[in-house]
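Input chain follows. Return structure tokens only.
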Amino acid sequence: MEFIDLKSQYEKYKTEIDTRIHKVLEHGQYIMGPEVHELEETLADYVGVSHCITTSSGTHSLEIALRALGVGPGDEVITVPFSWISSAEVIMLVGATPVFVDIEHDTFNMDASKIEAAITDNTKAIIPVSLFGQMPEMEAINAIAEKHDIAVMEDGAQSFGATRNGKKSCGASLVGSTSFFPAKPLGCYGDGGALFTDDDDLAETIRAIRTHGGVKRHYHTHVGTNGRFDSMQAAVILGKWPGFADEIQKRGDIGARYSELLKEHCTTPKVLNGNTHVYAQYTIRVDEGRRDEIVAGMKESGIPIGVYYPKCFHEQPVFEHLGHEYGDFPESEKASREVLSLPMHPFLSEDEQKEIATKLIELL
């Protein structure tokens, strides 16, 4: 059994992916070739924004966007302490200071009610993370940011394809970021990412920073980086793209089936009113003291299990200088000790789900 079944996905789209890859091999434009531009147009239209700018990774997307927003030394950026480390490390990479606010118990996403207390004169941006596949309360977050003249960048690395009140993930804030890491809902076969915005000037700055600081060759207007996406990876995504809507539908159906099977036995994911959930990970809660035992028992039965994320940012050595202690962010800390993620992908059969649920219930 696969935790995320990329092999079955490739077999389904093999003809389309292979055809797209061979076109790249034939024309030889391996960096920023026509496939990159086609993908950017396709995804911008899908998200419903004016600009999609692809990048070399989801982490690089976040960093480039912060640079484009002018965030740097002396500035503060608010994010959550429970996520993959990219959400916070990029803040330090641009010389700014991460400021953490706790998450909601039910959704694992940023608790909007705690944001204003964390805002100072130095706050320059907010990075809410759409963790595990659904968006946070973006309307509330955007309203707070507008009141204080702060930029909002959704970290939608795990939620591409999800919606909130009809708005697509990555299209509900000033700028949205996603990742095309292979395990993501829309993944390539290497690293990759993208930024989305309706702001023409911001998009132009992002494009410049992505390509060594200039949109014209040998003319550099910004301190830039090599954040370009390559044509082969764009070809892979374009090969998969015709099946993406169907995969999103199946993810929702599989997530709902898991919840129906498990709702009497553990804490299953809550989907906010107005949200759709793409279940990048199907994540439940179990008693902290039993998690290791349950994970071991599942793996012994041949069922792969993931734990995202066993330590919060403020518990990591790299963030010790921020001066936090255990207990400062109780919901994040509780989640980090209780969550575990079950196999989740669009090719998971109903029989496999029943096998997973039966074994989990037995262990619980």
